[in-house]
Amino acid sequence: MSRAADLALGASALALAGGYAAMASALPVSLLSDSVGPGGVPLMIAGLMASAGAVLMLRAALVAPGAASERPHHRRTAGLAGLVALYVLAVPLLGYPPALGLLGAAVAWFAGARGVSPALFAAGLAGVFWLMFVVVLGIPFPVGSLFGGL
Q1: What ranges do the domains of the chain cover?
Q2: Three-state secondary structure along 70-99?
Q3: In degrees, to the nearest 5, what angle opens at C-alpha 25 toward C-alphas 19 and 28?
Q4: Mean pLDDT computed over 104-127
Q5: Could you write out the DSSP letters of every residue in 28-73?
Q6: Fewer CB within 10 Å of terminal CB in the chain, N or C?
Q7: Which residues contact 109 (CB under 8 A, 6 or more apart)?
């Protein structure tokens, strides 16, 4: 993308993140809510979106004016979107941890990792998410229909 486009997209991401955070903060708290609350996950998503927008703007600010930019990689984007679509279809069948692991391995392989690296990345990704949700937050993962769940 061009420098101006990166700046505009980064600013838009920051504005959207601010609006999303404001809406998440306005969610009513129920007496039955957990310690994270109804806006906890949306606030984390807003923070990630704001961080991505800030990084995009910083990257655009550091690029020299008039520097040549790369051509867009539409095939790569379409491939990643296809992997995410397959992941969404795989979750009900396989369950969250195996589907997430396979997605991680496929994305790592798609990005050029070969050998044991995609498997290690997949295991690490599934392990971190399991630790974060199941152990820390106490939220059980859905088990796929292939393994007797759902």
Answers
A1: 3-62, 74-147
A2: CCCCHHHHHHHHHHHHHHHHHHHHHEHHHH
A3: 130
A4: 87
A5: PPPTT--SS-TTHHHHHHHHHHHHHHHHHHHHHHHSPTT---PPP-
A6: C
A7: 118
